[in-house]
Design brief:
4 helices, single chain, mainly alpha, about 60% helix, extended
Length: about 90
């Protein structure tokens, strides 16, 4: 499994250009950085999306089709959690 490198100048600059303050854990920083909780939420959400086989491996060449399946995956995740909250 390939590990993504979140901590890079390129990623930080891309966030700043979009008006987002980067809160990316520095490489080698321990859990005391205070970022673990937020990062875990994002990684968990990505994991839930990858539970949908179509999103785990990208088969579609067209971005609009891939984005549509991402939207469907997000809707399914929200639906599942809303169902749990009403039980």
């Amino acid at each position: 499994m390939t590990r993504m490198n979140y901590d890079s100048r390129k990623h930080r600059q891309a966030l700043k250009e979009r008006g987002i303050t980067p809160r990316i854990a520095k490489r080698g920083a321990g859990h005391g950085s205070g970022l673990g909780k937020e990062r875990w939420v994002v990684e968990r959400a990505i994991s839930w999306l990858h539970a949908n086989r179509r999103l785990d491996r990208r088969y579609d060449r067209r971005d609009d089709i891939h984005e549509a399946f991402l939207t469907i995956g997000c809707a399914l995740i929200c639906h599942k959690h809303l169902q749990r909250s009403f039980r």
